[in-house]
Amino acid sequence: MNAEIVGVGTELLLGQIANSNAQWMSEHLAEIGVDVLHHQVVGDNPDRIVEALRLALSRAEVVISTGGLGPTPDDVTREALAAAAGARLTRRPEIEDVIRERFARAGREMPQSNLLQADVPEGGRFIRPERGTAPGLVVEIEGRRVYALPGVPAEMREMMEGTVLPELAVLTGPTALVSRVLRCTGIAESRVAEMLDDLFHGTTNPTVAYLAGGGEVKVRLTAKAATRQEAEALIAPVSGEVTRRLGDFVFSSADVSLEQEVGRLLRAAGKTLACAESLTGGELGARITSVPGASDFFLGSAVCYTEKSKREVLGVSRATLEGPGTVSAECAGEMAAGARRLFGADLAVALTGAAGPDAHGGVEPGQVWIAIEGEDVSRRRPLRAPGDRDMVRRWAEQAALDLLRRHLEGKPLPRGPSVT
Amino acid sequence: MNAEIVGVGTELLLGQIANSNAQWMSEHLAEIGVDVLHHQVVGDNPDRIVEALRLALSRAEVVISTGGLGPTPDDVTREALAAAAGARLTRRPEIEDVIRERFARAGREMPQSNLLQADVPEGGRFIRPERGTAPGLVVEIEGRRVYALPGVPAEMREMMEGTVLPELAVLTGPTALVSRVLRCTGIAESRVAEMLDDLFHGTTNPTVAYLAGGGEVKVRLTAKAATRQEAEALIAPVSGEVTRRLGDFVFSSADVSLEQEVGRLLRAAGKTLACAESLTGGELGARITSVPGASDFFLGSAVCYTEKSKREVLGVSRATLEGPGTVSAECAGEMAAGARRLFGADLAVALTGAAGPDAHGGVEPGQVWIAIEGEDVSRRRPLRAPGDRDMVRRWAEQAALDLLRRHLEGKPLPRGPSVT
């Protein structure tokens, strides 16, 4: 089965937003084995929307549009869809009720214009909105199907997940596309590709894709088969071999974030954690606490951006500050020990370095030291991070979380410069 | 003049990446007065690329494609463009030299296949690449122009900025599009629209667009005129009136972030800042230090995620913890005072609350208290933030930064619940 996506909205043509809806939809259609051969984007213009729908219907079995279903005069997808179907719009009281109830619940007065959203092309169906007030519309035109969905991403996703994808999965029949994402850190994308590429010579099932960013590399394996089970059986041995080759660089075989994985390990070990941060300004703690339930193990973080606060809050010694300085193994170690003492934590991790853009006390941007301290662990590790300020901070957090992960998993440090 | 954008790449149709190129190009074409009426996306398939180019040429004066210019067999835009133009490809020695030189400089051996990138449709021009090895191609077909650019964003931008936009600006003649973005926080998008909408009745020059997200509302004014100066003259009075109506809710008339604005105000006032955080886990400090040069005024942040650390690190009293509890005006105030003392700062801001998803000690998710403390200021402010964990954290940071901004600007607190 093949499908086409038609994005409607002048804001897309003005570049005010990216067509992220098309990406999300394409990804999820691919997963159920639907081929997407074209995307189109048109503005809020009824004639051009009709033309776009006709073109899409001439080459795809299923057409999915997003946008133009709001209550204001520039929302014209409803009219265009009715015109393309040669049907007139009829007001549906069931939708009117939904819209009235939405406004009543929010305690707001309903503008009369909102009832336009209850119009459905005759002969068509609608998808009841759970969030917004715009229903999705479903119309058959010459044996082909058009779904018109709202442009608000959350409302589009709700209808894709609740209606469109399940309906199409039934139509595509026994085709299952299964993906597994392995996530690695501390290793370059080109090195990952070098280590794995021969596995995928002469085979396209499963396929492999590499995606690098934010200090990690995702390896995505995708297999297609008659059933989910068969697709999984195709992936399992390859995934096993990939994991064997990449070894400790892999921190998740289930597309879980590094902070989530570290949280899981801390909870399993029954250990508490504190942080000491400098160049990351608090982002390490923010990432760890972005996962619900972090209060089970996370006690706090001392963000010490000055020499004075490193000394007074964390107890870094004058000798260290005047000798090796703030970006050193010694300073990172004393910061970690200080944070552990301050918060009474089982484990502490510290980060200090120069984020850039300028050198910091003679230290080049990108130079970072990481330390962890605990009853049975005392490790220091340098990092030379590439890129701009944001990238250096991100890589530093990533390396600190990875050091924690390896410690909690009882795994050795990655190769490369390291003391202790 | 109108233009159409054709994205080429199977990765776009599989949803592996979003078509961010189309957004960037659309935005920059709009700025020089070029109307974009359609986007298309097709895969790495020569027939479909030819069809897409023909369709685009049938309705646009200028067609710009991205992608498919690499050296591997799935890169087929060159062939498709030649087919659409009815021309054959000729190898251009000038480009061969560029490619050879790129490889030599990187100390890498050049695969013979890379020389395919030196092929240009006969009668066409090329755009010399500064970064990559793929030249852009420029072909006239029946009096209309096609630019074929690489899909790597940095390479596409380099050629848009260096060649395509300047050439089209000459063709569109004296048309300037100027935008100004005013940023507000602490006010709902619908309220902003209500307060401003009558200004834009019966006029489309300047136009207005509202964009809400992350606890703020952007108001974008765009004017079109023969010259930049004239366009600016059209915007100035409207921008002035918008600022007058929205008053203290506007924190920037120059599209600057709230953390940047707060940093500017602190630097101008010669004051230092410390933070005390709970629900945000360090994100407030991370945002403040995301701006280079934050070490001029930012001393540090105490992220205290537990009652014990609030007591021991920040000196929050037992009476407060056992009475009103951690999510209270009292606790926020004592946290701010504690952070100010701990870091020896002129000003301190504190955030405490329940981020969710679950209630926290009987406090509903979204309930937040903010405090600032300084020699001449002592303010507390409650916030009821909507949405999920991420959104609550973001709104809390936003409200804390805004409280700081208003204090530094000597402005009153926003209306709504507040003590002190």
**CATH architecture name of the largest domain in chain A:** 3-Layer(aba) Sandwich
Principal-axis shape of chain A: elongated
Portion in strands of chain A: 25-35%
Total DSSP helices of chain A: 14
* Largest sheet entry of chain A: 6 strands, mixed
Q: Identify the CATH class of the largest domain in chain A.
A: Alpha Beta
Broad structural category of chain A: alpha/beta
Strand order of the largest sheet of chain A: 2-1-3-8-7-6
Number of separate structural domains of chain A: 3
Oligomer type: homodimer
Q: Spans of chain A of 5+ residues with little confidence (pLDDT < 50)? A: none
Give the mean pLDDT of chain A. Answer: 91
Through-space gap between termini of chain A:
58 Å
What is the helix fraction of residues of chain A, given as a range? 25-40%
Number of strands of chain A: 17
Q: Would you identify the CATH H-level superfamily of the largest domain in chain A?
A: MoaB/Mog-like domain
CATH topology of the largest domain in chain A: Molybdenum Cofactor Biosythetic Enzyme, Chain A
> Which two protein chains have the largest interface (Cβ within 8 Å of the partner's Cβ), and how many residues from each?
A-B, 71 and 71 residues
Question: Radius of gyration of chain A, Cα only, in angstroms?
Answer: 27 Å
